[in-house]
Amino acid sequence: MTNLGRFGLALITAAALATSACATSTAPSTESDAPSATGTVTLVTHSSFHLPSGVLDDFTKQTGLAIKTVELGDGGELATKLSLTPGNPPGDVAFGVDNTYAARPVRAGVFDEYVSPAAANGAQDYALAGMKQLTAIDFGDVCVNIDTRYFRDKNLPEPVTYQDLAKPEYRGLTVVENPETASPGTAFLAGTVATLGEGWQDYWRALRANDVAVAPNWSTAYSTDFSGSSGKGPKPIVVSYASSPAAEVGKDGSAPPTRALLDTCFRQVEYAGVLRGTTNPDGARKLIDFLLSPAAQATIPDEMYVYPVTRGVALPEAWAKYAPVPPKAATLPADRLADERDGWVRQWRQLMGR
């Protein structure tokens, strides 16, 4: 997820690189009941990670461990950089590798196996097949968003599906992100592959012929080009997130002028894992357990603009009303994403004449 943009809300609370010894981890564990560790646990993450300081303080009170955070760029950069240091990690635990990149570091031997006991309360529903090294923490859905005012004012039916965006009546109305440089663009491309199958190349040819615009990143697409955001740009259709409308609710609580098209969503799930070679494996496991706690999960929507994976965690009122979880978001196996993603992007570049 994001690496998911998250509307500028995510800030890093600390960024310091810890020195790690090259210790070999013990056998895979599925429990975190070792004696309590003391000192510091170093969390390696992406630039969109943020939890309230009070929540992080609760972890310290419960475990005696302070959290030090190391930022390694966006989600793709995080996965790539971790893959270069298996067994000699820059920290103890990683958070923010998503399903579109997960197979790369897992194959490289970056993580120890660990299944948190807390995963049984929802996170296990998002487990990657054959990958016991990663525990789901949150998920978000990349979806087409529309400016409902535009379609009302123009008396134009709102689009519903991927295919609608290629119809003549929507010519020149859509902006997407470049999958070479933006995670939402990669997810949208994967969504077209998952939904349209072998016809995805023809679909992109049709989009190009229909004057689709391509932005370098989510911020430009949403905050500058999209007419439904504060940027009030020229495009009433944009690739963003299922949660985006919740960010557009009026200060008085009035309904947002935007809506996500729930038949155009691709699911991104973010994972945490114990880094192989950590000198504090117990602390790493405890932090993963904590990230699945109701207290930590409850802060995820407002702080990182994604959905919690733990069952029973209530969404903020605006989310429940205007950002419901898409009932049938598209997905692809992590192994297929790892094997074919770069090829899809190369084909996309050729199809778009870039």
UniProtKB/TrEMBL annotation:
Gene3D superfamilies recorded: Periplasmic binding protein-like II (3.40.190.10)
InterPro entries for the chain: ThiB-like (IPR005948)
Keywords: Signal
Ranges in coiled-coil conformation: none
Pfam families with a match to the protein in the record: SBP_bac_6
Annotated signal sequence range: 1-23
Cellular component per GO, a single term: outer membrane-bounded periplasmic space
Protein name, as recorded: Thiamine ABC transporter substrate-binding protein
Gene Ontology BP terms: thiamine transport
Source species: Tsukamurella conjunctivitidis
UniProt-recorded Gene Ontology molecular function terms: thiamine binding; thiamine pyrophosphate binding
